[in-house]
């Protein structure tokens, strides 16, 4: 996802990582009980896992995260007009990249004089199951996340 | 800040279905193409901002939700 941010930056596409709750609280990264702790975990995300995009932190009660569906690693794309144009219950860089290419092409078509109207589409995208730990992973949670009975690669809820 | 019960249940302390499944509510999330809700957010230095302040700076804003774990 960092690479996507770099790729589209010149076209005024902004990326942020929005810090939620701990999806898999563990010994090193327990559940969040204060904003101070939440800021520290978010800083570790940048420093230890290399998230180079701007990181913004949600309220401790997850008001924003909950309003948008509370999925542990979802991605939304918003247009400047304050409306969401893409939402995915899982973050997949192929899917996000494909969507961004489409939306930027729409802008090009409009500049060329084409008259366009929005419509809704549903699509089933596919993630790489071998990369279930994702680029963020959960390897830093500690020896064993609380409640986990499965290996790390199987601990995502879907 | 907020309701103590909500804070504790949202920030669940172990990854077991009875604690995390209740929060997975993607099907009821805002519709595409409709105005979406705005919320206060904070940068890593604790400065207040908002989702709308961020999306208004760009033609498109990609928001990945997640955590260290």
Amino- and carboxy-terminal Cα gap of chain A: 20 Å
* DSSP strand content of chain A: 5-15%
> Given the helix and strand composition of chain B, which structural class is it?
alpha+beta
State the shape of chain B: extended
How many E strands of chain B? Answer: 3
- Indicate the multimeric state: heterodimer
The strands making up the biggest β-sheet of chain B line up spatially as 1-2
Task: Kindly provide the name of the CATH class of chain A.
Answer: Alpha Beta
Number of helices of chain B: 3
Which percent bin holds the helix content of chain B?
A: 10-25%
Structural class call of chain A reads alpha+beta
Helical content of chain A stands at 25-40%
**Residue-averaged pLDDT of chain A, rounded?**
86
- As laid out across the biggest beta sheet of chain A, the strand order is 1-2
Number of domains of chain A: 1
Give the biggest sheet of chain B.
Answer: 2 strands, antiparallel
How is this fold's topology laid out?
The complex is a heterodimer of chains A (158) and B (69).
Chain A: H1 2-8, E1 13-19, H2 35-49, E2 55-57, H3 63-67, E3 75-79, E4 84-88, H4 93-111
Parallel strand pairs in A: 1-2
Antiparallel strand pairs in A: 3-4
Chain B: H1 4-10, H2 17-20, E1 40-42, E2 48-50, H3 51-55, E3 60-66
Antiparallel strand pairs in B: 1-2
